[in-house]
Amino acid sequence: MRKAVLAGDEVVLRGNISEILPSQYDFELRICKLDQACGLQNPENYVDREIFSDEVSVSVTLDSSSPDFDPRKIRLFVWDRD
């Protein structure tokens, strides 16, 4: 999944998360650079929902001077299905 986050491949991540998450829940995910805010795409669609949200940082290396240093974060939003 780390490679998918760094490549920005939301399709692969959605498939992996769908396999793990119980079917009673629905979710949205965002992949962003570390310095960006990662909010819901259309928050007005979720006004009447209780939403759990968390994020994880992902990087190839911890060495910020490395040319491969381009860390990302994945933010996951989860709520009960109707």
Topology (elements, then pairings):
Elements: H1 2-7, H2 10-20, E1 25-33, E2 52-58, E3 72-80
**Class from secondary-structure proportions:** alpha+beta
Count of distinct strands: 3
The major pleated sheet works out as:
3 strands, antiparallel
- Compute the gyration radius: what is it? 14 Å
- Output the helix-strand order: HHEEE
Proportion of residues in β-strands: 25-35%
- Amino-to-carboxy terminus distance: 28 Å
Using the alpha-carbon principal axes, give the shape.
globular
Q: Summarize model confidence as the mean pLDDT.
A: 84
Measured as a percent range, the helix fraction is 10-25%
Oligomer: single chain
Low-pLDDT regions: none
Q: What is the number of domains? A: 1
Question: Strand order within the widest sheet?
Answer: 1-3-2
Q: What does the model show?
A:
This protein has helices at residues 2-7, 10-20, and strands spanning 25-33, 52-58, 72-80. The chain is of the alpha+beta class and 82 residues long. 21% of the residues lie in helices and 30% in strands. It contains two helices and three strands, in the order H-H-E-E-E. The chain has a three-stranded antiparallel beta sheet. The protein has one domain. The longest helix is centred in the N-terminal third of the chain and has 11 residues, at 10-20.
